[in-house]
TrEMBL record:
Transmembrane segments: none annotated. This is Aminotransferase class I/II-fold pyridoxal phosphate-dependent enzyme. Keywords: Aminotransferase, Pyridoxal phosphate, Transferase. PANTHER family: ASPARTATE AMINOTRANSFERASE. One of its GO terms (molecular function) is pyridoxal phosphate binding.
Amino acid sequence: SLKFAASLSRLGTESAFEILARAQALAAGGADIINLGIGQPDFKTPEHIVEAGIQALRDGHHGYTPANGILPLREAVCADLHRRHGVEVNPDNVVVVPGGKPTMFFAIMMFGEPGAEIIYPNPGFPIYESVINYSGATAVPMSLKEENGFAFSADEVLAQINPNTRLIIINSPANPTGGVTPRAEIDKLVAGLQAHPQVALMSDEIYSNMLYDGREHVSLLQYPEIRDRLIMLDGWSKTYAMTGWRLGYAVWPDAMVEQVQRLCINDHSCVNAATQYAGLAALNGPQDAVRDMVAQFDVRRQRIVAMLNDLPGVSCTDAAGAFYAFPNITGTGLTSTEAQNKFLEACGVASVSGTAFGASGEGYVRFSYANSLDNIEEAMRRIRAVL
Ligand code: PLP
């Protein structure tokens, strides 16, 4: 029989994709399904971006590009980072990759090995824990609590650091909780890291354009004292409704930029050229489509949070960023998985069990509100009837 590498059995997955497949199978069988499970904008990619991708194909951009991405795109990323976060970044430090995920895979594989420890958000994006386990490193959960708006406590994180700690992963605005970490907590973490110069930091800022109620995004790039060990991940998937194009980037410090390009060359050579030109048009073109999407997300967020808080046994924080609500469902008497299955099977509403995001997600269910207001309201009515 086949003899797989032992590491393969440690690789996890992202259950949102399994729920999507189940919901699609139920829909194919005639069920009326409302999908609040998968985390992707329900909007189409803005037309001028699509056109730029088509034009790039017509213009003959069919070959390999540099492994780190075409220079105009990396320059446009730097201009965007300057505009949004007020920071100077050298295009040589930008590495364009196929989506947000490759950066986390490369960053974790760069530091993870048996004996190493990596601190990661829990509940958090499930790929962090999966890849840490795959690498052989020890996954050390950073606990994110509802009473803190699902932000980390810098004191708690700093107390988890020991000589084996190699990397800390943070994510704000966060999946699955919608939590946003306040600047004061980040200040404290950065200050505390001065005593631990061997610890690298990966800041997943893929939702940096999606904050509500006047909140401002805090980019870790704004802290010069950690720039030499910071990997800042962002991309096009969420901001420009481009999940299927597969385009993302990270800003890497000088000491890692060669290594990550070597990983890119070993893995995928480069992102397909036409997609890079589409991404260039996204950054250099008008941003009204982005503002529009965020404004619509905000209306839906307020509605879903209000309707969740109205359900018996359910309470929900205000979900300060991203496009997820993460209600506490312990008052329903259901476990997270029971609630997820009941919502899908008894009333055709797809959500994702909090436990899909780590053990500390028990007691919660994630709803993505990247769906129409009508569908969100109908979904909440159906759940109310079932509860
Ligand atoms: N980081 C977080 C926190 C996410 O929620 C996601 C997608 O859901 C990603 C990264 C990955 O995005 P991409 O589709 O660009 O790989």
